[in-house]
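Q: I'm writing a short explainer about Gag protein for a general audience and would like to include a description of its predicted shape. Could you first generate the structure from this sequence?
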Amino acid sequence: MRVQRAAGSIGYDKYLTTAPTSVADQQQQDKDLLNGIIGKLPDTIFRHYKNKPTSKELWDALKQDYDAKDTLTEASLEKQLFSLTCTNTAKVGKHLDNLIAIMDELANRRVTIPDSQFKSAIISSTPDMYQATVKALITVYREKPSKLTPEMLIAAIHAEAQGKNFTSSSNKSQESVNYSNDNF
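A: Of course. Here's the predicted structure. Afterward I'll give you a sentence or two in plain language.
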């Protein structure tokens, strides 16, 4: 997807699907795109594709080799989404960001996870201390549970986590001040 977007942004995406004609400008543009793609590949992968003369041939070979792994990647992402858990309350924000990133990656691959399942993944993977917030939201939206979106759930847990982290750091600062005062 990155290659397609980058090529499209400079008007070279046509070279991913068709070989350049004999016009020198088109051949140079294709070489520029080919070098741009090749330059981003790790050496181990580069060696396998270094003899592809056009962007189209390189792109076709990359798609053939890596699209076959999409089903496995998608299954792995889904497994990860439903098996991640966060036990460290200080890292809840990062955990929620990881869940969002996995959902974004699945969406990019055109895999649809229903909101109800995503909400379940969020709820089951966050520490128990956030369950009161979750229960409050569920109670508020019990008449229309579909109105409670995953984004709302994540925002509420994020806000509570930030409040807890702020309170925790404030308490530590206060303890430090109290300790300092005790020394005088």
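A: For your explainer, you could say: The chain is about 70% helix and 0% strand.
Q: Perfect, that's easy to follow.
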